[in-house]
Design brief:
The protein has 442 residues and is mainly α. The protein has 17 helices and 6 strands. Bound molecules: carboxymethyl coenzyme *A.
Amino acid sequence: MSTGETATSAPTTAALAVTDTRTGKAYELPIADGTVRAMDLRQMKDGPEDFGILSYDPAFLNTAACRSAITFIDGDRGILRYRGYPIEQLAEGSTFLETAWLLRHGELPTRSEYEGWVEDITYHTYVHENIKSYLQGFRYDAHPMSMLCSTVAALSSFYPNSKNIHDPEERNLSIIRLIAKVPTLAAFIYRHIKGLPFVYPQNDLSYVENFLSMVARMSEPRYESRPVFTRATEVLFILHADHEQNCSTTAVRTVGSSHADPFSAVAAGIAALYGPLHGGANEAVLRMIEQIGHPKNVPEFIEGVKSGKGGGGQRLMGFGHRVYKSYDPRARIVKQLADDVFKEVGMDKDLEIALELERIALSDDYFTSRKLYPNVDFYTGLIYRSMKFPTDFFTVLFAIARTAGWLAQWEEMLQDKEQKIARPRQIYVGRDERPYKALRNA
Ligand code: CMC
């Protein structure tokens, strides 16, 4: 649809009528899918030399940067769907690999597609032996997310053909390799932190069982994880698999838009996920709970959050979401999962603190008036800790699952004819031109 100055004629389709008060000119900006095109603003100039109006939207609060058919979120109604399927139904009935297929291909796999997919993933779980020496170069106390980010980036050097991103076969192979190898890297990182020998993948186990085996197996010939833990991991992986245009997915799409290989793009996603306002929140929740120490200290902590005294603008971690403003549907599933796990492994003192935090926050006007409710990360850390994962490893678990979503989004971006290299504009607020003064003359 074209746009243009139409001072008098009535709109034929939905349009936004705008008058530029600098010039008195009227414009109609077509509205499609509830959006106006930012580029349509550029025709509005206050003179021939003017560049045209830009839209200013720090942190993309109100900007759609792509069209996507993968994940649907209705933040006001607490709805999350992958390819149209409600998250609750996928968490109940699907496996992580089935969900990963769905995210990428748009449909649930047939039985034979699923078997082929599982086989492809299973047979690409091994990593090059040099990766072991690469990991051994990290200090014993390196953060697992730093290790994961750099090791995934390093994988790009092992698969130079992955740069051929326009070749569907290469793309397919890279996607399989990444989904297959990230759990192996994560498990190797865990073993490195613990000073334990690396455990190789075992191909007769499921995706989740194999990951837990690589993490926990010692001298036994075959590791059997507790069914409640296998189930919890499978469900948490499904819940974390995608979440439309969040910070890390935007990082993957942005880096991918320069046509970098997918290993590099996913490494960028891991870097973004690391931050405590994003995937790092599950780690931050546990640290906050440890800092609170006892349920009786919760009211004082909440007061600290409200007054901003809790040290550098302390937030109630695991609460609030950019998109969900009634509840996070994933949090509901995770809470039920936490109940199942704790029924079997016993109540944890920290769970009592979490329940008290939730109880007090949900009845406090500060949080309810700002629509701050528990998000997916509020309870995930407690589940992961009951599985004996170290706190700084939690975000790695998130990254394993999100790899499936990042890759589906990356491939969708590459196939979208409207996409180009991501390159936002800025409002320059610096100094005007001034003459350089050489240091020697000063
Ligand atoms: N604790 C206390 N106050 C909060 C919190 C919180 N967790 N979150 C937001 N607020 C307040 C904030 O101070 C502001 O108050 P005011 O209007 O008085 O200035 C108001 O609520 C709006 O906050 P905002 O920062 O404009 O909201 P946002 O949409 O930019 O931030 C968020 C979303 C998730 C970054 C934020 O809620 C937060 O920092 N939460 C804690 C970190 C967390 O749990 N992150 C995990 C998100 S879910 C996993 C994922 O997908 O990444």
